[in-house]
């Protein structure tokens, strides 16, 4: 099996995996980073969202062989101990119910706020629409993203 | 059943303490005895070990408190709210409390189930008494130390104080307290004195969730564990003829492929290999009875229009009321099957060895599932261990342990620890859906009043549970008849968040809107008038409280500004009692590009005492949005036994850009609390449908609304 050198959460790691293995399963099964979740496997739900060079990307569709030059950030590496403004806002608004989709939501929100520091309400609603939450915590996600934008500013 | 000497105790429950190896005290309260008088605790308390108890508390010497939460957590918040109740009566600062999820233990706990919104309602008294008894024992220990009477000692916020001003922490007397006799008739706090209950507490796993810590079944790992992926018949009514696993076995990482029943298991060293291995299988299936939605529609409508069916409740003389009516309204409402679509796909860990069977994962019914696994593998129930993980949603799907049984069977056959993982397609198509149901509802109107009401249910597989015929409008209309009939399908069905009422409430609340229109009455006033007919307490089968229902109706109408209109906004009203909780909702919609857009929902809720306002609010908001999402978009049909959708590209769930703002108002109450996981959902669809009627003049008779509106567009325009 081929070996790939990856940069995950600021650390250089080498991992043995078949070339077509999605990043999602390398993270979860090989690197023990299980914060990134499996939801649909076809890029429709957003539960597996990570940052590739700072941009929110679906890790379920990303083959490991294409990532040797990339800087990969997962929920575990977004901040030291949950201190990223988006994570702080998530806590203040008590966003999660079951909690399963929230890592993906947070990673999408963090990347979105990097590209748009002062979003309007409708920009937030559109940007977050790619991430499903089956508990429908959407009202609080919307507020938490707006709040995080203010914290960052 | 273990044999134990049993005797009578003067009170309904008991508390037991025992010294911990590392210091501290454990306290348990038997859920069993609290629920059923006839079950008595063992006589020899001194010889009991800790395993004989249920809900319990652990107090460390430093005063730090651990509270074990016995019930499964599926996102309904009980891992936060149940320990809050214990902490309130124990009287410790919430910030000094650590919560742990208990595993399945049928000796210690009873009713470790997440279902029917019952966790809080069923355990309220028990959890309070557990905390209060522990507090009293700590007070008694301090009194003994100070050599004064316990009446001269008080305790609060983890500190015990004597009349003369001496203080001790709970941790200072915990060892002594553990050795004391268990006090009877401890006093509980007055609700006015609550300090934890009624105040916002954040989700207990919040930090772990936002930092991506392992919590869920899918995150569960054990050394040497293999991943299993299972191929099932693609259509209901198919059986496995034969299969070729040559290509599957060539996939790197695949370790084994075997048949069990009509399914094929692929075992691999990692998830991706297992999924690839399954895709590479070539299977041939035998067609047996393949069913379709078209056929179901025909059969269910046939049942509604036939005399076939079971009478579930009958009051007065319905035939006479209809014969004498000035006007009769008669409507049929239709709903599709629905998959649950928990965000975390079904999965379970099993390690079947000759000594024991270890199970771990997300399950709403750990006890029932353990028993079924014991039966399947012909093992004693004592040999089955179940560890509970947090669940990425439940919605009823994880009441059914089918996936745990599969995992156990695979592990047993393979002789290895296995984690079974469903793909989204497996999850959406493996079965146990909300059944498709149709209702025919008729009302007899005479002299401006509703004099007769008939409702008939035609459902796939099974009918409404026994309490539902005694929900509103039973008791409010003198001549009433509720009937049900079903068609047994080979498509598997089961409970889906607020079973039956998730659609029945839409049907009835749409229907009453039409009745109000026919009587030229305001929709809110009609409901209040009907509730005024209820002679409360006259019929103990009636489940709802007319007075509590009227209060939520009035509050929703007030907060939702029911009597005022604004440009471009159309309102719809709905009220429904389910799962012991009364809810009323006002939906406001606008029309955007010819389609309804839900702008805002105002909900009024009476669940008695609100334990955790933030958690309670979250449950209701989520329930309302779930109800709207599925009423608007949820579509799931069958052709030749095969489901129409298998992933989120073909199955539409509500997304953020489609969600209204939801405002929730709770009735201020000192009545014992009831659950909130489900009751917010049922009224939502009807409120939206009635608002759409107000906007477009169109009555919605089928879900999902988007499909029905598209199908009938020509009728509206024509």
From TrEMBL, chain A:
Pfam families, per the entry: Fer2 (PF00111), Fer2_2 (PF01799)
GO molecular function, a single term: 2 iron, 2 sulfur cluster binding
Entries under PROSITE patterns matching the protein: 2FE2S_FER_1, 2FE2S_FER_2
Keywords in alphabetical order: 2Fe-2S, Iron, Iron-sulfur, Metal-binding, Oxidoreductase
Ranges for domain 2Fe-2S ferredoxin-type: 2-78
Gene3D superfamilies for the chain: 3.10.20.30, [2Fe-2S]-binding domain
Taxonomic superkingdom: Bacteria
CDD domains: fer2
SUPFAM superfamilies: 2Fe-2S ferredoxin-like, CO dehydrogenase ISP C-domain like
Protein name stated in the entry: Isoquinoline 1-oxidoreductase alpha subunit
Taxonomic path: Bacteria, Pseudomonadati, Bacteroidota, Flavobacteriia, Flavobacteriales
Automatic annotation (TrEMBL), chain B:
Sequence intervals crossing the membrane: 12-32
SUPFAM superfamilies the UniProt entry points to: Molybdenum cofactor-binding domain
InterPro entries: Ald_Oxase/Xan_DH_a/b (IPR000674), AldOxase/xan_DH_MoCoBD1 (IPR008274), AldOxase/xan_DH_MoCoBD2 (IPR046867), AldOxase/xan_DH_Mopterin-bd_sf (IPR037165), N-heterocyclic_Hydroxylase (IPR052516), OxRdtase_Mopterin-bd_su_IorB (IPR012368), TAT_signal (IPR006311)
Secretion signal span: 1-21
Any Pfam family: MoCoBD_1
Residues in coiled coil: none
Family matches, as PROSITE patterns: PROKAR_LIPOPROTEIN (PS51257), TAT (PS51318)
Gene Ontology terms, MF aspect: oxidoreductase activity
Name recorded for this polypeptide: Isoquinoline 1-oxidoreductase beta subunit
PANTHER family: ALDEHYDE DEHYDROGENASE (PTHR47495), BLR6219 PROTEIN (PTHR47495:SF3)
Aldehyde oxidase/xanthine dehydrogenase a/b hammerhead domain mapped to chain residues: 211-289
Alphabetic keyword roster: Membrane, Signal, Transmembrane, Transmembrane helix
Domain of life, per lineage: Bacteria
């Amino acid at each position: 099996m081929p070996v790939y050198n990856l940069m995950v959460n600021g650390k250089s790691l080498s991992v043995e995996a078949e070339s077509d293995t999605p990043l999602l399963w390398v993270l979860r099964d090989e690197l023990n980073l299980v914060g990134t979740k499996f939801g649909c496997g076809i890029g429709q739900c957003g539960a597996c969202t990570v940052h590739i060079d700072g941009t929110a990307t679906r890790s379920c569709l990303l083959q490991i062989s294409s990532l040797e030059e990339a800087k990969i950030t997962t929920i575990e590496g977004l901040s030291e101990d949950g201190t990223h403004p988006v994570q702080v806002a998530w806590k203040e608004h008590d966003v999660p119910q079951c909690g399963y989709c929230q890592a993906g939501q947070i990673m999408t929100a963090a990347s979105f706020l990097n590209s748009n520091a002062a979003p309007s309400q409708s920009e937030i609603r559109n940007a977050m629409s790619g991430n499903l939450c089956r508990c429908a915590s959407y009202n609080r996600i919307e507020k938490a993203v707006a709040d995080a934008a203010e914290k960052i500013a | 059943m273990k044999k134990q000497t049993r005797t009578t105790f003067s009170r309904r429950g008991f508390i037991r303490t025992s010294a911990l190896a590392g210091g501290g005290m454990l306290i348990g309260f038997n859920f069993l005895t609290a629920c059923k008088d006839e079950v008595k605790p063992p006589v020899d308390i001194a010889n009991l070990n800790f395993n004989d108890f249920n809900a319990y508390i652990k107090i460390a010497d430093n005063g730090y408190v651990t509270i074990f939460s016995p019930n499964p957590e599926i996102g309904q918040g009980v891992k936060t709210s149940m320990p809050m109740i214990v902490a309130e009566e124990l009287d410790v600062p919430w910030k000094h409390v650590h919560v742990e999820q208990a595993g399945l233990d049928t000796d210690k706990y009873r009713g470790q189930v997440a279902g029917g919104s019952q966790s809080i309602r069923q355990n309220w008294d028990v959890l309070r008494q557990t905390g209060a008894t522990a507090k009293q024992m700590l007070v008694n220990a301090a009194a003994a130390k100070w050599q004064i009477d316990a009446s001269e000692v008080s305790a609060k916020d983890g500190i015990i104080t004597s009349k003369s001003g001496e203080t001790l922490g709970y941790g200072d007397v915990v060892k002594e307290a553990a050795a004391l006799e268990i006090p009877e008739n401890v006093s509980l706090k007055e609700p006015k004195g609550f300090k934890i209950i009624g105040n916002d507490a954040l989700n207990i796993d919040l930090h772990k969730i936002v930092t991506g810590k392992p919590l869920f079944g899918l995150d569960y790992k054990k050394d040497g564990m293999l991943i299993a992926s299972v191929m099932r018949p693609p259509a209901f009514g198919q059986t496995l003829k034969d299969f070729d696993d040559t290509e599957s076995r060539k996939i790197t990482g695949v370790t084994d492929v075997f048949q069990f029943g009509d399914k094929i298991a692929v075992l691999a060293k990692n998830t991706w290999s297992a999924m690839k291995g399954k895709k590479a299988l070539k299977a041939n299936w035998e067609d047996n009875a393949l069913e379709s939605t078209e056929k179901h529609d025909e059969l269910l409508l046939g049942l509604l229009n036939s005399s076939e069916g079971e009478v579930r409740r009958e009051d007065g003389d319905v035939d006479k009321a209809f014969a004498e009516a000035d006007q009769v309204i008669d409507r049929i409402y239709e709903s599709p099957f629905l998959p649950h679509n928990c965000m975390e796909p079904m999965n379970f860990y099993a390690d079947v060895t000759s000594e024991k069977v270890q199970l771990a994962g997300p399950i709403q019914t750990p006890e029932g599932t353990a028993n079924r696994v014991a039966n399947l593998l012909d093992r004693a129930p004592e040999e089955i261990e179940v560890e509970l993980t947090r669940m990425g949603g439940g919605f009823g799907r994880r009441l059914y342990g089918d996936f745990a049984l599969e995992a156990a069977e695979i592990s047993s056959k393979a002789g290895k620890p296995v984690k079974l993982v469903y793909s989204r397609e497996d999850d959406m198509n493996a079965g146990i859906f909300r059944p498709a149901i149709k209702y025919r509802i008729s009302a007899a109107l005479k002299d401006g009043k509703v004099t007769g009401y008939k409702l008939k249910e035609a459902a796939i597989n099974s009918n409404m549970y026994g309490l539902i015929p005694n929900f509103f409008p039973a008791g409010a209309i003198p001549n009433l008849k509720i009937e049900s009939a079903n068609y047994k399908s080979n498509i598997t069905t089961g409970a889906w968040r607020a079973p039956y009422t998730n659609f029945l409430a839409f049907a009835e609340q749409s229907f009453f809107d039409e009745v109000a229109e026919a009587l030229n009455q305001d929709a809110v006033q009609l409901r209040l008038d009907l509730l005024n007919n209820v002679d409360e307490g006259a019929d103990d089968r009636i489940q709802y409280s007319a007075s509590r229902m009227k209060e939520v109706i009035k509050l929703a109408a007030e907060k939702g500004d029911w009597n005022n209109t604004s440009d471009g906004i159309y309102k719809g009203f709905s009220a429904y009692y389910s799962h012991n909780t009364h809810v009323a909702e006002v939906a406001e919609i606008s029309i955007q590009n010819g389609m309804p857009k839900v702008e805002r929902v105002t909900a009024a809720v009476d669940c008695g005492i609100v334990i955790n306002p933030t958690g309670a609010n979250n449950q209701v908001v989520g329930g309302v949005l779930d109800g709207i999402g599925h009423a608007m978009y949820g579509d799931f049909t069958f052709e030749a036994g095969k489901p129409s959708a298998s992933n989120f590209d073909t199955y539409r769930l509500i997304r953020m850009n489609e969600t209204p703002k939801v405002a929730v108002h709770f009735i201020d109450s000192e009545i014992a609390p009831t659950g909130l996981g489900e009751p917010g959902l049922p009224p939502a669809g009807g409120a939206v449908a009635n608002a759409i009627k107000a906007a477009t003049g169109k009555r919605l008779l089928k879900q999902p609304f988007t499909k029905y509106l598209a199908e009938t567009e020509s009728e509206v325009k024509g």
